[in-house]
């Protein structure tokens, strides 16, 4: 097994269980405990995990992202629920803007039976997912590929998005807070998402349960800039009252 593959599998285990033990990982991957310690030290320096005696624990930080291939495996059921709800909101023939989130990939899978959609996206993964879909108009923003993300950012991506007037934008975020609004971990993503919001008539935020009451580094918009919030489980009564007061429709899947 390559070192990169081993580290990705350790990250998956961290994401799923919240902690790992050096001796268990050493036995699982057939490498020395010293090798595992070096892997965990690397995650510690990257701000992903904190080393402890005999292992490491995941750092729940809204400003630090796991690699895309790890994040896409997190709360997969919740993302499928969100995708199913949004499928009912999108009509044949509409134009939609999609961000480069892992939730967007689940949503686009749910939309595959729609006809004649136009999709504008800076997500490499969404583009790949749509390579075998016929009858759709797929538009890539272009731009600079962000390291460790399957996403295109920068001035070219921003300018491309600004040139369109879409029916809907569907985006996600790292944090949703009543005072601080909709936030993300990276300013490059925030710049693109702000232009996505400005380039669509209807603004839909797709977030799973883990994003509520969290604040990330850079603000995308105020919650009142949104039309619809879609999530996987019923939010708290406080959040439901807040959405109602602000005139924002909240759609959700399961009860807690």
Strand percent estimate: 15-25%
- Alpha-beta content class: alpha/beta
- CATH classification class of the largest domain: Alpha Beta
| Assembly status | single chain
Task: Characterize this entry briefly.
With 256 residues, this protein is α/β, with parallel strands linked by helices. The chain is 38% helix and 25% strand. The protein folds into 2 domains: 3-60, Winged helix-like DNA-binding domain superfamily/Winged helix DNA-binding domain (Arc Repressor Mutant, subunit A), CATH 1.10.10.10; 70-254, Rossmann fold, CATH 3.40.50.1360.
Description of the molecule:
Strands 6-5-4-9-12-14-15 form a 7-stranded parallel beta sheet. The protein has a 3-stranded antiparallel beta sheet with strand order 1-3-2. Strands 10-11-13 form a 3-stranded antiparallel beta sheet. The protein has 10 helices and 15 strands. The chain folds into 2 domains: 3-60, Arc Repressor Mutant, subunit A (Orthogonal Bundle), CATH 1.10.10; 70-254, Rossmann fold, CATH 3.40.50.1360. With 256 residues, it is of the alpha/beta class. Helix 2 packs across helix 3 and helix 8 (155-162) runs parallel beside helix 9.
């Amino acid at each position: 097994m390559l070192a990169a593959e081993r580290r990705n599998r350790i990250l998956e285990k961290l994401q799923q269980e919240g902690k790992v033990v050096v001796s268990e990982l050493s036995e699982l991957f057939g490498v020395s405990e010293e090798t595992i310690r070096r892997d965990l030290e690397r995650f510690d320096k990257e701000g992903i995990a904190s080393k402890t005696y005999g292992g490491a624990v995941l750092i729940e930080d809204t400003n630090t992202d796991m690699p895309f291939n790890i994040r896409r495996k997190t709360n997969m059921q919740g993302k499928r629920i969100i995708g199913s709800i949004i499928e009912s909101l999108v009509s044949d023939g509409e134009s939609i803007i999609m961000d480069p989130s892992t939730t967007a990939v689940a949503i686009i899978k749910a939309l595959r039976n729609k006809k004649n959609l136009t999709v504008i996206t800076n997500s490499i993964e969404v583009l790949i997912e749509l390579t075998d879909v016929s009858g759709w108009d797929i538009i890539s923003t272009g731009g600079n590929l962000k390291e460790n993300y399957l996403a295109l950012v920068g001035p070219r991506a921003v300018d491309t998005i600004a040139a369109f007037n879409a029916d809907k934008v569907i985006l996600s975020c790292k944090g949703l807070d009543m005072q601080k609004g909709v936030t993300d971990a990276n300013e490059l993503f925030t710049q693109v998402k702000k232009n996505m919001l400005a380039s669509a008539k209807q603004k839909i935020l797709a977030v799973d349960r883990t994003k509520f009451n969290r604040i990330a580094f850079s603000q995308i918009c105020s919650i009142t800039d949104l039309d619809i919030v879609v999530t996987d489980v019923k939010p708290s009564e406080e959040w439901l009252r807040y959405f109602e007061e602000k005139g924002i429709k909240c759609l959700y899947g399961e009860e807690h």
